[in-house]
Here is the input.
Amino acid sequence: MKSKHHTLDVELFERWGSTYERSWMQQHLFDPVHSAVLHQAASRFKPASVLDIGCGSGRLLRKVHDYWPEARLSGVDPAHKMLEVARQLTPEARFSMGSGEALPLEDASVDLAFSTISFHHWRDQAAGVREVARVLRPGGSFLLADFTLPTWLAWLLPRVHSAAQMRMLFEQAGLDVQAQPGPVARFVRITIGTKIADD
Here is the structure.
C-alpha cells in the first residue's frame, strides 16, 4: 500500500515534468551532484549496463552516455510525465515506470546503478536498497547521492540519514561500502556500495 507521502511526491513530479529541465535546481544542485557521482564512477568502473533510479527527465543518463557510449542505459521513475520527457530527450536509453522498491528489471542484470537526490522520496528505503542489490550483478556497484545529516540531527527527518545510517542500510542489503565521499553541494553525500559476490 502506498503511503500518503509517496503519493504526494509522485503527484508533485507529475506536475513538474514539463518544466523540470528548466528548473534552477538543475544547474545549482543536480548538475554538481551528477558531476560528482560520475567522477567517482569513472575512476572505478567500466560498466556494460547502467541504471538510474528516480531518473526524472533523463539528465544523468545523457551524461552517462558521454562517459560510456557503448553501455546499455536504463531509467526508472514513478512519474509518467517525467518519463515522457526522458524518452524525448534521451533516445539512447530505455525507460520504465517503477520505483526503487519495485524495479522492473531481472535479477543480476545491472553493472552500475545510480540514485541522485531521489532517495529521500522512497517510501521504504531499506526495501529499496535490497531491491537495488537484487538487480546488481555480483561485483556490481550502487552510487547513491542524497542529503545527509549529522547523526545527532538525523532523527529530525526520518527519510534523511547520517553517513553511518546509510552505511548500515547498504550493509544490511548485502552491499559492501567502498567509500562515502562528500559533502557535495554542501548537504549531499555519496555512498558507494558493491554487491558482495557469492562464494
Remarks:
- The mean pLDDT is 88.
- The chain has one domain: 4-195.
- Residues 10 and 144 are 20 Å apart (CA to CA).
